[in-house]
Amino acid sequence: MSETKNQKPIALAADHGGYELKEAIKSHLADLGLAAEDYGTFGTESCDYPDFAARACKAVQQGSSDFAILCCGTGVGMSMCANKMHGIRACCCSDSFSAEFTRRHNDANALCLGGRVVGPGLACTIVDAFLGAAYEGGRHQRRVDKMMALENQ
Ligand code: RB5
């Protein structure tokens, strides 16, 4: 967790499929003393994940958050939506290694998790790996620059 530059609140969002996982992650962040801004959803009623992905990712785009954590049933829909937003580099993870290295190598700024894929314990470990890792820059910067240039194609 020491690498987390986060002084800004982490932007949280979920649909109904990720709501319970979002709540577990919110508690975990609070236990760690990390601030979070919750962009919904706020219950288990059926809703549309793109609406909530957009709200949390806008906070990252606008600089009010450095990172978003997005939960839906699989994490996949959230990651697809997030990766359509300029400046967002989202990774759907169900393992800690990917979560760590998507920060270190891809400078990911959004972590997506599936509430129907991972339990709260594993999810919090994945969150820790993501927030605890720092982007390495160096040779990865050229690749991240090329990745971001694809936004204009
Ligand atoms: C909702 O049923 C489900 O489709 C959604 O949470 C997510 O898994 C989509 O990718």
Q: What is the count of β-strands?
A: 5
| Number of structural domains | 1
Q: Give the strand order, joined by hyphens, for the main sheet.
A: 2-1-3-5-4
Question: What bound compounds does this protein have?
Answer: D-ribose
- What is the CATH class name? Alpha Beta
Our count of helices gives 6
**Quick check: average pLDDT?**
96
Return Rg in Å.
Answer: 14 Å
Quickly give the structural class: alpha/beta
User: What is the third-level CATH name, the topology?
Assistant: Ribose 5-phosphate Isomerase B, Chain: A
Q: What CATH architecture do you see?
A: 3-Layer(aba) Sandwich
CATH superfamily grouping: Sugar-phosphate isomerase, RpiB/LacA/LacB
Principal-axis shape: globular
Largest sheet: 5 strands, parallel
Query: Which sequence of SSEs, written as H and E, runs from N to C?
Result: EHEHEHEHEHH
- Range of helix content: 40-55%
Distance between the termini: 36 Å
Weakly predicted, low-confidence segments: none
Strand content: 5-15%
